[in-house]
Amino acid sequence: MAEHKRELDIAVIGAGVLGLSTTEALLRRGANVKCFDGRRPGSGQSGGLSRTFRHRHDDPHIVDLAARGLAGYREWERRSGVEMVGTEGCAYLGTTPADTTGLKTHQVPHHYAPASDRAEVFGALGPIDGPLLVDPTAGALRVNHVIETLTGWVGDHIIANDIHSLLVLDNGKVEFQTADAIYHARHVVLCAGVDTPRLAARLGWDIPLDCALHARPHYRIREELRGAPTPCWVDKSGQFGEMVYGSVIPYTDQYVLGLIGDGVDVPFDARGALTGEEGMEDHVRRVTGYVERALPGLIPEPIGVRVCIMSKLPAGSDALRAWHAPGVTAIAGHNLFKFAPELGELLADSAVQDRLPADLELAGARALGAA
């Protein structure tokens, strides 16, 4: 074969946490696999210092996926000797009995704490109305530890090149192009974040992914409260004028928060042009106002901000879905970091068997419905 033409069994497009976890799972299966991304591994939507690992989701199938994701992280920790998910837990304000359905179905430990015990659950939290739902086995993801470990395991199977397009050939193989070669693969796994709809369009898939910028400012924990409980946080009560989520930044005295709900992101179109009327600084001010009202244990002066890309399917920020055709599997959604060990296994199975695993179908069953 000519030098510019190269054959592969499996190609993974995207070296974020899903691409890396899928590649690692395929290597353990003995596959001839390469992972393609023009950027440094984990520097796109998987970038940052912290993510929230939590079990609670509206869809019980997603709760199950999260539980298996945590088991996968614990196995990665055992293999690597590196901490990946902390033991801070997660506290929720503003829940209803229905919010625990999936937790009960999959026997995920949880309990309620009365408002009077708030300081024992979250040291920075001020007075609240109503109980706190506590997910004690949740915690803050150590993002850098995860990416560095996976990158080390995958090693030189990462190819630092962008992919231009995909094409399924008459012989069933998938052709894709980089800047310096044309590849043919038996199967391609497409987990390229915001680029997934563009690459999938040639395959006839219209992936309805809404993309937007999202601000996550971070704040210092007051010195007298350092060492107090700092769980991950989800407040949908509206008691303090905003709905927010947050987590500690591991190994620091900082806590990061973001807004939840409609109108909390700045959308951009297919050309990358911002289409929203508000800027990032407006959202930072809103989060800071929330800190002043709800979290007196934080100093309400932002010391930094992470501007990240949200990529949501119609059912919202916790939705995910996989698409499959002979030779190609694609996945899209948001907040997928917490599922990475399990999604990597499922996507690897899809590539090896050339069919979508039932668990992926179940997890995505509601993704295209109304939020």
Automatic annotation (TrEMBL):
Residues 9-349 form the FAD dependent oxidoreductase domain. InterPro entries: FAD-dep_OxRdtase, FAD/NAD-bd_sf, MTOX. The keyword Flavoprotein applies. Its cofactor is FAD. The keyword Flavoprotein applies. GO terms for molecular function: flavin adenine dinucleotide binding; sarcosine oxidase activity. Keywords: FAD, Flavoprotein, Oxidoreductase. Gene3D superfamilies: D-Amino Acid Oxidase, subunit A, domain 2 (3.30.9.10), FAD/NAD(P)-binding domain (3.50.50.60). It comes from the Bacteria. SUPFAM superfamilies: FAD/NAD(P)-binding domain. This is FAD-binding oxidoreductase. It comes from Saccharopolyspora elongata. The lineage of its organism: Bacteria, Bacillati, Actinomycetota, Actinomycetes, Pseudonocardiales.
